From TrEMBL:
Protein name, per record: Cutinase
The keyword Nucleotide-binding belongs to this UniProt entry's keyword annotation: no
Xref: SMART domains: Cutinase
Disulfide bond as UniProt keyword: yes
Source species of the chain: Orbilia oligospora
A molecular-function term among this protein's GO annotations: carboxylic ester hydrolase activity
SUPFAM superfamilies: alpha/beta-Hydrolases (SSF53474)
Length: 218
């Protein structure tokens, strides 16, 4: 499980790491938790995000080669969410500068699940969004290109993105503020970790032939 921290969070998993901790305790599978090393700075933001996306692509490529049967899970909050999305679909475009290619389809197929929280590149047309932001709340501050969105939407079954409609960074038309951005983790941590656990372990299975309640007759 690779966690990508938010802007200005100290090196480590950051707030998004609490989801990794929950899954590690809840699953019977062996979980290795990794914090992506990247600048996560505000000044020079575009370069910071690009550096993070490149570092993530290299890390996933390395893991895929060394552990071919390992499930890979990606999680990112704020700038970390952008880093994850850029690594998959490609970075750059608009204020983010020149287009940068994402990882190969073969490498993306190695990824089991992706959680994005408060993504500044959130788009109203996302088919994998499960937050409270609505289409009329608009896109994030750094929208993606149509081509980038097409790539991400093609993997909608393995991505779950959460944008608070009061978040001024991921839904600029929702009349939100930074407080709404900071509330993202607390608002969506429960549905995110439950979805992620199901993606890793599969849905809970009932034993065949055993009813939920047994009728006792005398």
């Amino acid at each position: 499980m690779i966690s990508c921290r938010a802007t200005l969070e100290v090196q480590g998993e950051g707030q998004i790491g609490q989801i990794a901790e929950y899954v590690q305790l809840a699953t019977s599978q062996t979980v290795e938790r990794v914090a992506l090393e990247y600048p996560a700075i505000l000044e020079g933001y575009a370069e910071s995000a690009a550096t993070g996306a490149e570092a993530l692509k290299q890390l996933i490529s390395k893991q895929a080669k060394e552990c071919p049967n390992q499930k890979i899970v990606l999680m990112g909050y704020s700038q970390g969410a952008q880093v994850v999305g850029d690594a998959i679909s490609g970075g750059g475009y608009g204020q983010m500068g020149e287009l940068i290619p994402g990882m190969s389809a073969e490498l993306i197929d190695r990824i089991t699940a992706v959680v994005l929280m408060g993504d500044p590149r959130h788009m109203a047309c996302e088919e994998y969004h499960h937050g409270t932001a609505r289409k009329e709340d608009g896109d994030g501050v750094f929208p993606r290109s149509p081509e980038q969105m097409a790539i991400l939407n093609s993997y909608k079954n393995k991505i779950s993105s959460y944008c608070n409609r009061k978040d001024a960074l991921c839904a600029v038309g929702g009349r939100g503020n930074l407080g709404g951005h900071y509330d993202t983790i607390s608002l969506f941590v429960t549905p995110a970790k439950e979805w992620l656990l199901e993606m890793i372990d599969g849905p809970e299975q009932e034993l065949p032939g055993v009813p939920d309640e047994l009728e006792v007759t005398q």
